[in-house]
Amino acid sequence: MHKLKGAAGAFFFLLQTDDGDLFKITIEMVEDDNGQPTGEVRRLKIKYFDTVPVATSLCILKSGFLFVASEFGNHQFYQFEKLGDDDEETEFVSDDFPTGAHESYTPIYFHPRPAENLSLVESIDSMNPLMDCKVANLTDEDAPQIYSICGTGARSTFRTLKHGLEVSEIVESELPGVPSAVWTTKLTRGDTYDAYIILSFSNGTLVLSIGETVEEVTDTGFLSSAPTLAVQQLGEDSLIQVHPKGIRHIRADHRVNEWAAPQHRSIVAATTNERQVAVALSSGEIVYFEMDSDGSLAEYDEKKEMSGTVTCLSLGEVPEGRQRSQFLAVGCDDSTVRILSLDPDSTLENKSVQALTSPPNALSIMAMSDSSSGGSTLYLHIGLYSGVYLRTVLDEVTGELSDTRTRFLGPKPVKLFRVAVQGQTAVLALSSRPWLGYSDPVTKGFMLTPLDYPALEWGWNFSSEQCTEGMVGIQGQNLRIFSIEKLTDNLLQESIPLTYTPRRFVRHPEHACFYVIEADNNILSPATKQKLLEDPSVTNGDATVLPPEEFGYPRGTNHWASCISVVDPVTEKKVLSTIHLEDNECAVSIAVVAFASQEDETFLCVGTGKDMVVSPRSFSAGFIHVYRFHEDGKELEFIHKTKVEEPPMALLAFQGRLLAGVGKDLRIYDLGMRQLLRKAQSEVAPNMIVGLQTQGSRIIVSDVQESITMVVYKFQENRLIPFVDDTIARWTSCTTMVDYETVAGGDKFGNLWLLRCPAKASEEADEEGSGAHLLHERQYLAGAPHRLTLMAHNFSQDIPMSIQKTNLVAGGRDCLLWSGLQGTLGILIPFVSREDVDFFQTLEQHLRSEDPPLAGRDHLIYRSYYVPVKGVIDGDLCERYTLLPTDKKQMIAGELDRSVREIERKISDIRTRSAY
């Protein structure tokens, strides 16, 4: 309901049907003698307004916007263009209809049309419902991508999810040569925007002015015949340029003071801030300068000799109200970083040293927000030649280094640059891909996230009238200027529209193609729809073809619309081809199989059901379609289809043949000329097989209602023999093999669990010649001879639809990634030490009592909703430690006999080593 400004009692309702059609309802009130509405209803008026996606909730904002919280798919944000008062849409009035419930009346009709009253402003990504998910690295990046199928009907999508921040590119310009570095600088301290872009080449320096156009300038005082090592706006209105042979101090009146490097020595590293300069000579000496009261650079009398060659230097920003930065960080090729004092009483004295695993390539001292203290903390960021990034706390009083956190960024040496993003100081780290280190806007915790951008060789701040908070970078021979708009969303999504609701998908083993089976119930297939349109006796001449993305497909009871789509998410980023199934068939399963009998040629197998009714379940037949790949997997050629008794709900490649779950039966098929040839069969499930996994000769069979059964295939006897099953009736929705004896899975009630086969049963099943023994071994309680052991169990807030063992970050540990029906992505990380288990168990216990849920539930009871939680620590709850008030943090830290910073580091490390 929305109240209109102006007239008293003026308001309207927006109602939505199950098809998404919006209707505007206005209510006329009985007025009193003064013309004021009394609250008594005189009549209702209703008219068609527009059509939007089916919503769970609608919210009209006073500013003239409508938020549609979609039931499925992306949420939509619309702007009201008009209120539909002056259009030609028919308005129906309650006076025209009888008031009696049993009186007859003439039905009214309306014609849906494209939106006229609403215009789409923004769409908010939502993966609900998420049907399936797979991890693969198809772009040869450091980290893999997550590919998923989401949505329902014509609004379904194939989505690529990538860890990274979205980057808005402003300029890409080719340069005359390949620069080695780039800087920007203001002319005076009070300037709002940068005035120059300075590019350093191997044989010289190029200066560009920033204005409406970017042009080369020569009268700047910069030495153009030598490469540049550093540029800085110094004091009120001076500039300095550091080059291998010296330092140029350029005054506002273009007077230049030159400091020359000692004879036979050159400058190899430099660092600057607005009042200080430090350079390292090839002899290993550090020369320190500080600006004096008249604005000139004064050299400190003594030079500091280092034990090795200096590879990098860093000065922090001058704190407000101070004369200088207190510390100078020096990195040497002996794999050490030293902190030198810049205090006048102890200039260039050693304060602390830190040994590293590799020589440092870059250093950066900067103050950043700190969730531990709630304020700002001084950090030293270190980039190593090995591609490792370190962040360590630098004590502002003693200069000691502590609380070091490590992250592997890529195989290339790490370069570091201080930048400003969204009003906060951040660090740009460049390796094989660019990364940004920043404080999370919500938790204030430190985040290190890759940028969705090509690899850069150098980066720097950039500020102009057109782009107040941007960055400038070098990529080969190109100069790129870009900005980062949002720090809140570090998971990027790319969507490819699909035709119907996706059910399952598989990947081509060699090429970057996916094959998606899609199906919608009670929808007319294209063939049926065309047949009806061609029949003149049933054609509706007034019908207009409306886009199915907004209005859906034509309905038909007990009809199925189903297809197989070939999707290329990497190169062409679209659906390459689609095969529509006919004869009211619905695709239910899919697998890629390399048949050994066909010289290991790979085929696509698709299981279908004919005339399926969802509830109560019925069908007329099942089929397995076989397709051959062409054009590197981009085209499919139909070979043949084989009729089976029931729709095969699970297919899997197995030892050069096809494994199929048909009802209760598990079958092995080989490829024949005209149909599939059945080679083995066994009834292994109590109700219906819905999933298959395999390693070696062992097969994990998922039943729709009775958990999993382990089956062994005995090649000599050609028998499929179940040998171990579960004690709990789990409504299995997904499974994966963690190792040869352990299975992870999820069920329809939101549980995640880990089951393990007893060692004795596993050994017996794999013994040669044990087929007859297993076949005649006595059953236990009408099941398999042995029972699985429950290793872990946890209740999640979503229904798991897929689970797989994978590695999400470069150099990280394996974890279990699971996806939920409502769009959830979660991970299960294995502990590797008993110490970590004890620590997180204790932390979890404290948080259960110190951080009660808003809804009043008990954490332990919630996670034990169906089965008592076992072997799983609630990571989401542990991460809420960073959001607690400072006094509670310190209280818990005291109980754990650790510091707040140490607890936050352990929580952060457990996530970053396996995921993001």
Describe the protein in words.
The chain is mostly beta strands and 916 residues long. Helices cover 9% and strands 48% of the residues. It contains 9 helices and 66 strands. The strands form 16 sheets. The protein has a 5-stranded antiparallel beta sheet with strand order 1-2-3-4-8, with no helix packed on it. Strands 22, 23, 24, 25 and 26 form a 5-stranded antiparallel beta sheet that branches. The two termini are 42 Å apart. The mean pLDDT is 91. This is Bcrse1. Residues 561-882 form the RSE1/DDB1/CPSF1 C-terminal domain. One of its GO terms (cellular component) is nucleus.
Q: How would you briefly describe this protein structure?
A:
This protein is mainly β and 916 residues long.
Task: Describe this protein with a few key phrases.
single chain; 916 residues; mainly beta; Methylamine Dehydrogenase, Chain H; 4 domains; five-stranded antiparallel sheet; 9% helix; nucleus; Bcrse1
